[in-house]
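call fold(seq) -> tokens
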Amino acid sequence: LDATFSHDLASDGKVTASNTRSGDRRFRAANVADAKHDTYWATDDGVTNAELVVEFKKAATFNIVRLREYLPLGQRVEGFAVDQWSDGDWKEFANGSSIGNCRLLRTQPVSTTKVRLRITKAPVCPAISELGLFLEKS
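ret:
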């Protein structure tokens, strides 16, 4: 486990978001890849369907996606999907109905230059503290 989670590939990429709460740096997209559980990305009130994109300079390969919500604000996400950039288009490779404290998604190895997290259902604005990408070590 230590070897698998020793390096978060998302920290090597550039993270952008479709919306950031009031344009405030305290809620910026990059917070999801800073390895701190007390920082998070959030959207404006009323923006409940939003996206985060991690873009790499060269293809990254991973098979575990780790998602975390900022729980002091409560569990907010009721639906999400994760996509990879492939052949000039987004292709979904994982989805779920909740994130909570920690959601691990194991997949077949994915090699891509971009990963997108889509929040597809939330009663209020999402507050995401981590979008991590890892390659399981054997």
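Strands lie at 14-17, 41-42, 50-69, 79-86, 89-96, 103-121, 127-134.
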